[in-house]
Amino acid sequence: MSASGAYSATGLAPGRWLVTSYVLGYRALRAPLELGSEPRVVRHDVALEPAVVLRVKATAPDGSPLRAALQRAGKSPFAYRLADAPRMTAAAR
């Protein structure tokens, strides 16, 4: 892909293709593409929509990063789910 976002592919077989486009900060796009049996140039434009990004800072009750607190407790930071977290009280918000 070029700096402008243009791309090309050659030698594709006729038939149905699924074009997948994704860029960090944008929603992924999947679109079907039908290529005929006659060799020709096909233009297939895609327009990606900006993604909603939610940045979250997870901390333990003592204010330390949650990952470090879980490691100190001998728990895997990758196996932790928000559903496992204690419910916040109105005072903690």
Structural commentary:
With 93 residues, the chain is mainly β. It contains 1 helix and 2 strands; from the N terminus they run ββα. The chain has a two-stranded antiparallel ribbon with strand order 1-2. Strand 1 and strand 2 form a beta hairpin. The radius of gyration is 23 Å and the shape is elongated. The two termini are 46 Å apart. 0% of the residues are buried.
Summarize the structure in short.
With 93 residues, this protein is mainly beta. 8% of the residues lie in helices and 15% in strands. A two-stranded antiparallel ribbon has the order 1-2.
Keywords:
1 helix, elongated, 93 residues, 15% strand, two-stranded antiparallel sheet, mainly beta
Structural class per helix/strand content? mainly beta
User: What general outline do the C-alpha atoms trace?
Assistant: elongated
How many β-strands, per DSSP?
A: 2
Q: Which sheet architecture does the biggest sheet show?
A: 2 strands, antiparallel
Provide the gyration radius in Å: 23 Å
Give, in order, the helices and strands: EEH
Q: How is the quaternary structure best described? A: single chain
Order of strands in the sheet with the most strands? 1-2
Topology overview:
Blueprint: E1 15-21, E2 29-35, H1 66-72
Antiparallel strand pairs: 1-2
